[in-house]
Amino acid sequence: MLTKGGKPDLILFVAVIVLVSLGLIMVFSASSVMGLTDAGNPYYYVQRQTILAVVGLIALFVLMKVDYHVFKVLALPGLVVSLALLVLVLFIGTGSGNVHRWIRIAGFNLQPSELAKLVMVNYVAVYLANKRERARKFFSGLLPILAITAIQFVLITLEPDFGTAVALVFSVLVVLFASGVHLGQLVFVGALAAPVLFYVLTLKEYRVKRLFAFVNPWADPTDTGWNVIQSLLAIGSGGLFGLGLGKSRQKFSYLPEHHTDFIFAILCEELGFLGGAAVIILFFVLAWRGLRIAMRAPDLYGTLLAIGITSMIAFQALLNIGVVTGSLPVTGIPLPFISHGGSSLLVSLTGIGILLNISRQCQE
Q1: Residue 140 burial by CB count (10 A; 0-12/13-18/19+): exposed, middle or buried?
Q2: Is the CB of residue 164 less than 8 Å from the CB of residue 157?
Q3: At what angle do helices 342-360 and 44-65 cross, to 10 degrees?
Q4: DSSP secondary structure code for residue 138 in this structure
Q5: How many whole angstroms separate alpha carbon 293 and alpha carbon 12?
Q6: Residues 175-209: pLDDT tens digits?
Q7: What is the pTM of this model?
Q8: Alpha-carbon span 259 to 262, nearest angstrom
Q9: Which of 24, 168, 217, 260 would disulfide-bridge 225, Cβ 3.0–4.6 Å?
Q10: CB 22 within 8 A of CB 245
Q11: 111 alpha-carbon distance from chain centroid
């Protein structure tokens, strides 16, 4: 079912295109040395990212034209498939050491936890939009959603991928709040969940070490504090204008995950404070236009879906930049549109495509 008439939000569209373009440039710059050592090809990582960017942009253009209401039908099947993949990845997933985050398909890695965020946002939007009174009831409204979210949180944490698990919970809570759930109920649930969260944070020794490293990374500069220190060195050495595109020193095996989770540090090193500030402004523009679309959506489902997608992307960007700048404890989560990572890019562009379709049906 195609959407007739109405123009998509051009400002949002341009902001996303700029972010994707900048992301491809930075992936090449940050990964060229590693591509040469890993695969004998400096273009190895950017070629893969480009393929997925093209696929994601095609999905964006298609979904921009397809009426977003079709996703109502896919809400429950999508949730079932998403949960199945989250279970499956624990058994057949790939990753280093005890990490099981990806399922290998046709030479590319699918990360079910990334897909779960978008699927869950859609499911919650449909669930609450179909019967609005559910938002005001605890047992028939809030509790079922929290139960499903808790299951997903546990499954994603077991991979382990704590950052993505937190991002999923945050997106769901934002949609619940926007739907009119009693704030007192959310506070009550938060109070009950606090001991569980504390247990999860302290269950693994490396998480405890990360918390201490966040407080004082220089207490253990060669181990737990290494990532943050090297990231801050990269950002600081960039100054106002940066060292110049492709001239990063930290990408020469000093800063781990420099083409994925810590790519923002490389960006600041090469493009300086102005480059980093430009990226942050672009994400602010994305959040602004997303919330504007949500407020003007033609129905409650569109409003909740737009808010969920916007919060999903914006919070992930906030979390990543917070980690890279030492403002938050280290947790592995990519910067949307910028970091190397196909699943994150595809899911983010898919979400933007849906958001642009909602914008085509917005009320003036």
Answers
A1: exposed
A2: no
A3: 20
A4: I
A5: 10
A6: 999 988 888 888 888 888 888 788 777 777 777 88
A7: 0.94
A8: 6
A9: 217
A10: no
A11: 12
Q: Nearest CA to 187 among 153, 131, 138?
A: 138
Contacts of 302 (CB under 8 A, 6+ apart): 68, 294, 358, 361
* Phi-psi label, residue 335: left if phi above 0, alpha if psi -120 to 50, beta otherwise: beta
Quote the CA–CA distance of 214 and 3 in Å, as a whole number: 48
Nearest-angstrom CA–CA distance, 316 and 113: 13
Domain boundaries, the chain: 10-360
Chain CA centroid to CA 33, Å: 26
Residue 275 amino acid letter = G
Distance CA 364, CA 253 (A): 52
Q: Give the DSSP H or E segment for 135.
A: none
Asked if omega into 160 is within 30° of 0 (cis), the reply is yes
State the amino acid at position 193 in one-letter form: A
For residue 281, count other CB atoms closer than 10 A to its CB. 11
Count of Cβ atoms closer than 10 Å to residue 93 Cβ: 20
